[in-house]
Structures are given as structure tokens and as C-alpha cells.
Amino acid sequence: MAIDDQLFALWLVPPGALEDPVGAFADLYTDPVTINGVPMPVSALVDRACSLHEAFTDHELEIVDRLETATKLTVAFRHRARHTGVWHTPLGDLPPTGRMVSGLGIDVLTITPDDRIAEIWVLADELQRILQIQAV
User: Which of 12, 13, 29, 69 is 20 to 30 A from 42 (CA-CA)?
Assistant: First the structure.
């Protein structure tokens, strides 16, 4: 299975549905993994996944484009989901609206020789999603 397929499959499942969420993430990510220049423990990724699934349901991911080299994988993708729980954002906590939201994301992943993700540069259009639920 391609690493981006593994990545999206992992993030589409609520961590509570996994037998060992930290182990599942550690199979795919180094510990720590560097995200936008900041080292982050795998347990914090699990916390992020929990927050995502607490705020959103009915997830859909569509790969828009991908580019792979020997040590890098860049994936542009569209994420759609229904806002059904409290969403913790830089603008504050947003109560559920039931609306479907869609946003584009780009992940630039550095892959280790043992096929784990060591570094990620993430660009996500969170403001567009917030505007879709008419929070601002």
C-alpha cells in the first residue's frame, strides 16, 4: 500500500476505533515527527486525530495531485466532512452546525528509508472551512 493510502486510511478512522492508536500512528510516523518545523510526539498526532473526529463526521478525501521522489511525497487533497461536534480553532471553539465543509490541503512529507514520515510541511485552508460554517 502506498504511504499516502496508509496515511489517509489512518486519519479517516477515529483513533478510538483502533486497538492501539499510538502504535498505529508510530507505525507510520517517526517519534517525534516534525510538523512545520516543530517536533511533535506521535501521541500529539493521536490527540489531533481525536479532535478531528470529535468535530467532524462523514469524512471524504480526494487526492487532487501527488508528486513523489525517493525521499519526498507531496500530496494535494480535498477533505470534505460534516461539522457535527465542537471544533477547536484559532478563532475559538465553534459549536456544531451540521454543515458539510470542504477544504484543500497540501502535505509535503519527508520519508525515511524504512517508509515512515519524519517531517511534514502542511498547508491547510482552515479559514475557508470556517467561512463555510458561517462562523465569521
Answer: 69
**Number of folded domains in the chain?**
1
Q: What is the DSSP string of 96-125?
A: ----EEEEEEEEEEEE-TTS-EEEEEEEE-
Percentage of residues of the chain with pLDDT beyond 90: 85
> Which residues on adjacent β-strands are paired with residue 82?
57, 100
DSSP letter string, 43-66: HHHHHHHHHHHHHEEEEEEEEEEE
Domain of residue 9 covers 3-132
Alpha-carbon distance of 75 to 67, in angstroms, equals 7
* CATH code of the domain covering residue 100: 3.10.450.50
pLDDT digits (tens, 9 = 90+) for 59-114: 999 999 999 999 999 999 999 999 999 999 888 999 999 999 999 999 999 999 99
Can you state the percent helix, strand and coil of the chain, rounding each to 5? 30, 45, 25
